[in-house]
Design goal:
2 copies of one chain form a homodimer. The first copy, chain A, is of the alpha/beta class. Chain A contains 12 helices and 13 strands. Helix content of chain A is 36%, strand content 18%.
Chain lengths: 405, 405
């Protein structure tokens, strides 16, 4: 161990999660244990903070402060959407070199893994000895190799609790309700809405994920069928649903498609998709009470909704990142392997296996015919999401009618 | 006590809250103690369940089941938007009379108080001896007479926690964020967003409530000022903001203004207002990253976010409704009087003083010049909303720059 003597830098990239700071604090506290790591620097706003040399010396933060931050949602070191190219990476090296940084930990999704890959390749070309470890996080749960992603479980708990409440609300004042859920091109997060279905007639009655082409005609006949059966209908829809040509449904509905530096179009931060689907139901099915909410940023940043398993694993992937790099002197992305029901182990996978591409839900998780989610998904996701707070219906006998016999 | 022998009926009207079932269970458990009350019936879907004789005999529900329901958001006996007229009330009496109902408890907002008033007047005209007590609830906090309304505190805690998370999110990836909050014509709920402001540079930086005319020019200059100072801006906006003529801002933006039986236009269940304000900022200020969420139904039904004070008071107003009607043989609406910091007492106010009209925020709660909320409001609302979970920023020294000196 300790082949490389120098500083460590930790940074966070991409969209925040409820537990991303567990990983941050996992890295910091573990790195502070090793003599070969002189200081632990935190780069502000991800890689953009490296090129600007906006570092904080986290070696001088108190443990209590760090533990408080671990329980705080969103990115404690702040984030960025920058995607470094060759020139950007050259600037990163100049800064890392001059500060004698030898360990770089980047917490993020597939875009951040790609950043790690580029930085790592660039370091090798430049002959600069640097350990680069990607620490996974994303509420979308769409990273390759790993069984699941830290951040997903807590966001899933939020989505489950939201739909459980919505279902109770919709049952008390019936109508159609559409909840639009994040997840980009993966349906995992939307699928967690299924945990809100406690009694057989509970919603969500219909769930639409991006993995299956969204067909307006099928959608309308689904809604009509459920509405006739139940006098109400709760629908969970992924923000990233696409038509048969693979074109996002939101794309045809928005005038200006905003794209970020990675070429991704804006799916969140607007109620357009929900409102368009509600309009479709109102005009085609002539149903009056149609409501829609876009859960938006609450899903990834709302205070107080954290899955315990998710928080613990987020902490551990941060610790393991440091351990792999110091004890084993290797680069890669920390991944989770499920070993039992429920137990996991951590391993390091090459950066190239995680960078850029994403994972979708397997077919066995989706019941296309009934537009819902299968038991197989529930087995997969339940340990990650954890248990919802208890809630119940009143059980009492009906009173015999006198006038309306 | 116990002048009237007969059955009791309890029902819930209007939009649900996180603690409305505390009031329901308060009524049921208290009513089950009195010999003069033979059975406690629950009317399904509010007054509409009375005319259909859709009753459950809650005397035969288990205490454990009822306590579980007390901790469940939304209306356990289900709700209605019906507003009874004279004919409707006549049907109510026929049913109440034939079942020998002598105590009627209706949990709801000002519309439900109005229903109580009509039913009560109709009972008096018909010479039918009936105690009618309105039990207050509304997340809007807009009932007259009472210091505040059960349901408001928990919804306020949700809004505070949502904005606290949003602020952390917005700080990590800067831009403009607009959160649209419920509350109809009252700004109380939107104002609770101010509790998310922990550090001086935290959002919400701007808060717009319906009590003050919304001026587009002022709004844009506010946003520009904050954005220049902070490189970001978090905005809380009431769904019911109006222009100088008193016309709702959402009205001019929606093609079909849906109205309910009470003549209220639909303010919730659509992202239209947020999207329109975001579009305004994008086009007028040329700021690219503008995001908006409409918190929607999550505010009143999300599982697990309950203020302890709110839950306790919701339980007590239910109990007091029964006690006033049985011990004192009087009709009215249960109201809360603040007696200390923080202590309250309960009293009964005539139904006519609460029915129909609503309350707005007093001027001293609103800082119009800076488009924010005052300390006076915080003193008023903090005991009701309670304490947010702890969260923190990293405190560590900045590292001296080498290349970018």
């Amino acid at each position: 161990m300790g082949k490389l003597n120098g500083k460590a830098v930790v940074a966070q990239g991409g969209g925040p999660t409820a537990v991303i700071n567990q990983s941050l604090i996992g890295v910091i506290l573990e790195a502070r244990k090793f003599d070969c790591i002189e200081n632990v620097y935190g780069a502000m706003h991800g890689v953009s903070g490296i090129i600007k040399e906006d570092f904080m010396d986290l070696t001088q933060a108190t443990t209590h402060n760090l533990e408080m931050v671990a329980n705080t949602p969103s990115s404690g070191m702040l984030s960025t959407r920058d995607k470094p190219d060759g020139e950007y990476c050259q600037k990163i090296f100049e800064v890392l070199k001059v500060h004698n940084v030898r360990y770089f930990y980047y917490i993020g999704g597939n875009d951040s893994a790609d950043t790690c890959r580029i930085v790592n390749e660039n370091a090798q070309k430049a002959g600069y000895d640097l350990r680069v470890v990607h620490v996974p996080k994303t509420i979308d749960n769409d990273l390759l190799v790993t069984d699941h992603c830290p951040g997903f479980g807590s966001a899933g708990l939020f989505v489950s609790q939201a739909f459980a409440g919505i279902n109770l609300d919709n049952r008390s004042i019936p109508g159609i309700y559409i909840g639009v859920v994040m997840g980009r091109n993966a349906g995992f997060l939307t699928a967690t809405s299924i945990f809100a279905k406690k009694y057989p007639d509970d919603g969500p009655h219909l769930v639409y994920v991006p993995e299956k082409a969204f067909d307006k005609t099928k959608f309308l006949s689904d809604v009509e069928r459920i509405y006739r059966e139940n006098d109400r209908c709760v629908i969970a829809v992924s923000e990233g649903i696409c038509d048969a040509k693979g074109e996002p449904m939101i794309a045809s509905l928005m005038e200006n498609q905003e794209k970020d530096a990675h070429g991704n179009i804006q799916l969140s931060g607007t109620g357009a998709l929900g409102d368009a689907l509600a309009g479709l139901i109102k005009s085609e099915l002539k149903i009056k009470r149609v409501r829609t909410d876009t859960f938006g940023y609450l899903q990834r940043s709302y205070l107080s909704t954290v899955s315990a398993v998710d928080a613990n694993e987020a902490r551990e992937v941060g610790e393991k990142a440091v351990q792999f790099s110091v004890w084993h002197d290797i680069d890669g992305s920390v991944a989770i392997r499920r070993t039992g029901d429920y137990s996991v182990e951590y391993f390091l996978t090459p950066l190239s296996t995680v960078a850029r591409n994403t994972k979708s839900m397997p077919d066995e998780f989706i019941d296309t015919e009934n537009s819902t989610i299968t038991e197989a998904f529930k087995s997969y996701a339940r340990p990650l999401v954890g248990t919802l707070p208890t809630y119940d219906r009143i059980w009492a006998p009906k009173v015999e009618k006198i006038l309306n016999k």
